[in-house]
């Protein structure tokens, strides 16, 4: 034993001697070549090993041997269609990268995300760190920390100890209708898609910390937030594929490329507003506010956590709801019969105030069918949101998935499954929600709910989004 150790020691020290001799003697170019060769060998061997781990799952050839297919797809902006096509072609669990799978099986998604699951958020979520240096509830992968954060914010998101959420949404609906009315009076064309973003951004800032940004009032992209976010979004999606990019971008030399609270415009400007709002709330003897942020702080959110959560509220709560409004309005404009039926229902409804209340809207069956069908035909968040298989691996429908694999889901594929929605799954047809048995309706509703994720990671802002939608289609079409 001792002689073996001595021999090993001898071999290692002679190897070190050879490498140091080589490094001392070789010109710089040879050292660079040697480094490249080591990286190449490491890359090929780790790719080969990863290929073998998941070789029993089919997918595009490029996705089986590299992450290039996934990178190309998320960078192109059409990944939601690619993931759908891949599940159609290669099966209900398909391969989209060296360590990435995608599924269109709603039962498997519920299995991965239920409250007692052993699955965890994967490195995909590192891309959701809106402030590059700190986590928020959506990017937090440590489950103990995530549960603690969620519990501090659950009451605020549910509107339990917050005053006037609905009244504030009403005020913003009135402002928004006023803006559209001014365009109509002038008979000027209006970019409804853009104005809807103004509306949702004002709503979320108003209910989150007590003041709308002023997008609707000024009818402008305040701080160029929308312009810069749309420009940077593809980069965010690329980071979900290559999470190590975040560490690279965070180094002192490249840090300047990331948004910072010192910026005058864009996401950086919103970061500085979040910082100021949080600082204001933590001043000594300051009055506790009855808005969402006030509720989070009452339940123990710290100043640094508040800065990150304000950013998350804005990012998660604006473009999502705006997408739902835009896509459903597009379908209503393209389907005059459906719009007519909706208007008839609204005209015969008992609406007490100038803006329909949430409870009045909830009992309008055709309106609810339109909202659900809008979500189904265009789910607002269509990224993979991959979860990581527990270390011991998992078996689903008799197929083993090794521990550490990232499994995402294609919500676009799920909301187009013919076994759930019927042969006309590609059509916008609100009636499918009305003429159906109670059991079938339950199945459809619980499958559609996956657009808000599920269980442990269910969207915290779901009920707020639904209040906005319940009002905007009624006030926008009557
Ligand atoms: C139609 C609109 C919306 C849709 C489709 C939607 C969907 C989602 C989805 C899919 C997730 C990811 C969960 C996961 O990690 O698997 C999520 C998370 C989240 N959403 Fe939403 N969302 C919407 C609106 C909102 C609004 C209006 C707010 C804020 C008021 C909001 C706040 C959040 C928060 C805080 C999280 C993180 C939850 C956590 O990490 O536990 N969302 N949402």
Automatic annotation (TrEMBL):
One protein family per Pfam: p450
Binding site for heme: 459
Source domain of life: Eukaryota
Organism listed in the record: Hypocrea virens (strain Gv29-8 / FGSC 10586) (Gliocladium virens)
Cofactors demanded by this protein: heme
Record-annotated membrane-spanning stretches: 20-45
Ranges in coiled-coil conformation: none
One MF annotation (Gene Ontology) recorded for this entry: monooxygenase activity
Protein name: Cytochrome P450
Keywords in alphabetical order: Heme, Iron, Membrane, Metal-binding, Transmembrane, Transmembrane helix
């Amino acid at each position: 034993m001792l002689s073996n150790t001595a021999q090993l020691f001898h071999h290692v020290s002679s190897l070190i001697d050879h490498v140091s001799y080589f490094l001392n003697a070789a010109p710089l170019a040879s050292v660079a070549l040697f480094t490249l060769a080591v990286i190449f060998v490491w890359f090929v061997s780790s790719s080969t090993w990863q290929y073998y781990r998941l070789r029993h799952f089919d997918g595009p050839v490029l996705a089986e041997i590299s992450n290039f297919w996934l990178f190309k797809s998320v960078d192109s902006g059409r990944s939601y269609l690619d993931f759908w096509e891949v599940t159609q072609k290669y099966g209900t669990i398909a391969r989209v990268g060296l360590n990435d799978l995608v599924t269109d099986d709603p039962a498997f998604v519920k299995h991965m995300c239920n409250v007692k699951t052993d699955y965890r958020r994967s490195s995909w979520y590192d891309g959701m760190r809106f402030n590059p240096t700190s986590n928020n509830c959506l990017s937090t992968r440590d489950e103990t920390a995530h549960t603690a954060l969620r519990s501090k914010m659950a009451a605020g998101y549910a509107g339990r100890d917050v005053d006037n959420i609905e009244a504030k949404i009403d005020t913003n609906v009135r402002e928004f209708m006023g803006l559209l009315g001014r365009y109509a009076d002038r008979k000027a064309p209006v970019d409804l898609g853009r104005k809807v973003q103004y509306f949702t951004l004002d709503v979320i800032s108003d209910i989150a910390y007590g003041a709308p940004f002023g997008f609707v009032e000024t009818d402008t992209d305040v701080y160029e937030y929308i312009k810069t976010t749309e420009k940077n979004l593809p980069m965010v999606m690329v980071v979900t594929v290559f999470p190590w990019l975040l560490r690279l971008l965070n180094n002192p030399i490249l840090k300047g490329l990331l948004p910072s609270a010192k910026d005058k415009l864009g996401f950086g400007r919103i970061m500085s507003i979040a910082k100021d709002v949080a600082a204001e709330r933590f001043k000594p003897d300051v009055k506790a506010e009855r808005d969402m942020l006030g509720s989070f702080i009452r339940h123990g959110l710290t100043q640094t956590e508040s800065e990150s959560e304000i950013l998350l509220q804005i990012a998660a709560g604006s473009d999502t709801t705006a997408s739902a409004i835009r896509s459903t309005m597009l379908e209503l404009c393209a389907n005059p019969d459906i719009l007519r039926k909706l208007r008839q229902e609204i005209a015969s409804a008992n609406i007490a105030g100038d803006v329909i209340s949430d409870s009045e809207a909830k009992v309008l069956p055709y309106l609810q069918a339109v909202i659900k069908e809008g979500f189904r035909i265009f789910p607002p968040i269509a990224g993979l949101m991959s979860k990581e298989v527990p270390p011991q691996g998992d078996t689903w429908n008799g197929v083993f998935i090794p521990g550490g694999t990232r499994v995402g889901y294609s919500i676009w594929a799920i909301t187009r499954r013919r076994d759930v929605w019927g042969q006309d799954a590609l059509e916008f047809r609100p009636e499918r929600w009305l003429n159906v048995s109670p059991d079938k309706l339950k199945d459809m509703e619980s499958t559609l709910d996956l657009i808000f994720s599920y269980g442990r990671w269910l969207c915290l802002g779901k009920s707020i989004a639904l209040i906005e939608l319940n009002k905007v289609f009624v006030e926008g079409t009557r």
